[in-house]
Amino acid sequence: MSGEVLRDAFSSRLVAVAESTEQMLDRLLSPHLLPGEKTRPPRLLEAIRYGSLGGGKRLRPFLLVETARMLGAEGEGVLRAACALEMIHCYSLVHDDLPAMDNDDLRRGRPTCHKAFDEACAILAGDALLTYAFDVIADTPTHPDPAVRADLTVMLARAAGLGGMVGGQALDLEAESRKEPHSREFVMLMQSMKTGALLLNAVEAGARIGGADAAQRAALSHYGALLGAAFQVADDILDAEGDTAALGKRAGKDADRNKATLVAVLGIDEARKRRDALAREAIEALSGFGDKASILVEAARFTALRKS
C-alpha cells in the first residue's frame, strides 16, 4: 500500500472515530438521567458539553479505538472506554485554562470554559467530567468481563492522577517559578506525566480490551510512550512557531511563562530532530504487527508533522 493511500486511510479513520466519539459523548452528556441520579443541573450540563463537544482531533479516543481494532475488538463498549478517556482529557483542559493554572482565554478557537461561563462553573464541570469518566468505564456496557473493567479503571486512574497527568501539571506549574534552567531530564519526566500518560493509556487500554498477549502489550506500551513524547515535543514546537489562529489557543505562551519545554532546553532545531527520532522509534516498535499496524504507524507520523 502506497504512502498516499495509507495517509488517506488514516485520515478517514481519524475523522470516523472523531465523529463516533462526538456522537457517543453527546449521548452520554445528555439530560437523560442514570439510575441513582436525581437531576442534571442545566447550566452545569451546558458547561460540561461546552468543554467536551465540538472540537479537537480526538487523538486519544482514536488511539484506543484503533489499537483495539487492530487486535480484533470493536463496538460500542470500545467507544465508551474511549469516551471515558476523552472526558478525562477534556476535564484537564477546562481546569488547566483556569486563572489559577495557565490562565488562558482561548481554547479550540473559542473562549475557554471559565470565560464562557464562570470559574466556579468551570471547576464543577471539570469535577463532573472526571467523576463521570469512571462511571462510564466501570459500567457493564463498557465490557462484559468485570476483570477487564477493573483493569481499565485502575489504569485510567493511575494515568490521570498523582503519578500521572495531575502530578505532571503540578511539576509544570512549579517549573514556572524556578530561577535555574530546566534540565532535559526534568522536562522529559514532567512531559511523560502531564501529556504522555493519557496518550500511553489510550494505547494500553486498547491493548487490554483487544486481549493482547504479554509481548504485544510490551510493544504497544513502548509505542505509546514514544508517541506521547513525540506529541509533546511537537506541541512545544508549534507553540514556538505557530500562530494563535492556526492553533486555536494562544501561541507563544510557553516562553512568556518560563514553561519547561524541550524547545527551551534544546533549541528549536534539536527539538525537531528529537520529535522526528521519537516518531521513527514509535513506528519501529510496531514492526512485529506487520501491515495490521499501518493506521497506528500513520498516527505516529501525523503526531510529529501536525500543524495544530
Automatic annotation (TrEMBL):
<dbReference type="InterPro" id="IPR008949">
    <property type="entry name" value="Isoprenoid_synthase_dom_sf"/>
</dbReference>
<dbReference type="GO" id="GO:0004659">
    <property type="term" value="F:prenyltransferase activity"/>
</dbReference>
<keyword id="KW-0808">Transferase</keyword>
<keyword id="KW-0460">Magnesium</keyword>
<dbReference type="GO" id="GO:0005737">
    <property type="term" value="C:cytoplasm"/>
</dbReference>
<dbReference type="InterPro" id="IPR033749">
    <property type="entry name" value="Polyprenyl_synt_CS"/>
</dbReference>
<comment type="similarity">
    <text>Belongs to the FPP/GGPP synthase family.</text>
</comment>
<keyword id="KW-0479">Metal-binding</keyword>
<dbReference type="GO" id="GO:0016114">
    <property type="term" value="P:terpenoid biosynthetic process"/>
</dbReference>
<dbReference type="InterPro" id="IPR000092">
    <property type="entry name" value="Polyprenyl_synt"/>
</dbReference>
<keyword id="KW-0414">Isoprene biosynthesis</keyword>
<dbReference type="InterPro" id="IPR053378">
    <property type="entry name" value="Prenyl_diphosphate_synthase"/>
</dbReference>
<protein>
    <recommendedName>
        <fullName>Probable farnesyl diphosphate synthase</fullName>
    </recommendedName>
</protein>
<dbReference type="Pfam" id="PF00348">
    <property type="entry name" value="polyprenyl_synt"/>
</dbReference>
<dbReference type="GO" id="GO:0046872">
    <property type="term" value="F:metal ion binding"/>
</dbReference>
